[in-house]
Amino acid sequence: MDTQKAVAIRIQQLCAEKGYNLHALARKAGIPPTTLKNIIYGNSRNPGVITLKLLCDGLEISLYDFFATEEFRQVEPEDEK
Predict the structure, then answer these.
(1) Predicted confidence (pLDDT) per residue in 52-72, tens digit
(2) 20, 28 contact by CB (below 8 A)
(3) Percent of the chain having pLDDT more than 70?
(4) Which residues are CB-contacts of 48 (< 8 A; sequence separation ≥ 6)?
(5) pLDDT for the residue 67
(6) CA–CA separation, 38 vs 64, rounded Å?
(7) How far apart are CA 81 and CA 52, in angstroms?
(8) Closest to 54 measured CA to CA, from 76, 40, 36, 34
(9) Dihedral angle, C-alpha 70, 73, 78, 80, nearest 10 °
């Protein structure tokens, strides 16, 4: 699994747990809904750590809790550019 897909899956899992749709999370996080949709649908391949922190704040979790999952343990190394 690649990093972008793992991030998108994790956001969707957390939204389901909290009962949020993407618009509700974007509103709670203080980011544009289009930014969140771009992350989910793969149009934003590299969301910044600040954006991820805002999403975590909206989900009321830490960055550690966001990344402490089996999906992220299985992420393949990114290709060297």
Answers:
(1) 999 999 999 999 999 999 889
(2) yes
(3) 96
(4) none
(5) 96
(6) 23
(7) 23
(8) 36
(9) 180
Asked if residue 29 has pLDDT above 60, the reply is yes
Please state, in angstroms and as integers, the Cα–Cα distance from residue 73 to each residue in 46, 60, 77, following that order: 18, 22, 11
Per-residue pLDDT, 80: 55
Question: How crowded is residue 20: how many other Cβ atoms within 10 Å of its Cβ?
Answer: 18
**Which among 16, 75, 72 has a CA at the least distance from the CA of 64?**
72
pTM: 0.89
CB neighbours (10 Å) of residue 15? Answer: 19
Structure tokens, 6:
């793992």
